[in-house]
Amino acid sequence: MKVNGDVVSLDIEPWVSLLDALRDRLGVTGPKKGCDQGACGACTVLVDGIRINSCLALAVQYDGREITTIEGVDHPLQEAFVRHDGLQCGYCTPGQICSAIGMLAEHAAGQPSVVTTGQDAPPRLTEQEIRERMSGNLCRCGAYNGIVQAILDVSTDGAGEPGR
């Protein structure tokens, strides 16, 4: 697999999660083991640009795929999170940022969410849309307002206008 731009080869048991392979075998510590049940999103990474919970994925499933963790991210969201206080303790931040990058790509591709109204393609990215789309990522510190503002800050709707 390719992890953050580097091709890596692992000889691992078939039951090892992608999260454990990244953290324990490759020393990539950005993705966090929060709940280890796919409920918190702290382990979110991008696989070929699509966000997944790495604690629920078996590493062997991703042979030949491109994995991006926060260590491999260079995105305006990182500065926006700081600017809008979208983090406090920082534990969830790597997963939040990776999830937000994947979410913005889903939105740009016109994928609707549960709260999407109308037939807009892509749907207008509102605070309600962002909160729904990011609902799989939890923050114990409650930095949700800053996270939403950071995403709004770097996002555009289908017309190239800010998604507010």
Protein architecture, described:
This protein is globular. It is of the alpha+beta class and 164 residues long. A hairpin with a 2-residue loop joins strand 1 (2-3) and strand 2 (6-7). Strands 2-1-5-3-4 form a 5-stranded mixed beta sheet, with helices on one face. The longest helix is centred in the middle third of the chain and has 16 residues, at 93-108. Helix content is 30%, strand content 9%. Mean pLDDT is 92; it is low at 157-164. Helix 2 crosses helix 5 (144-154). The protein has 2 domains: 2-72, Beta-grasp domain (Ubiquitin-like (UB roll)); 76-154, [2Fe-2S]-binding domain (DNA polymerase, domain 1), CATH 1.10.150. The termini are far apart.
Number of strands: 5
> From the coordinates shown, what is the CATH architecture of the largest domain?
Orthogonal Bundle
Rounded to an integer in angstroms, the radius of gyration calculated over CA atoms is: 16 Å
CA distance, first residue to last residue: 38 Å
Sequence stretches where pLDDT stays below 50 over 5 or more residues: 157-164
- Structural domain tally: 2
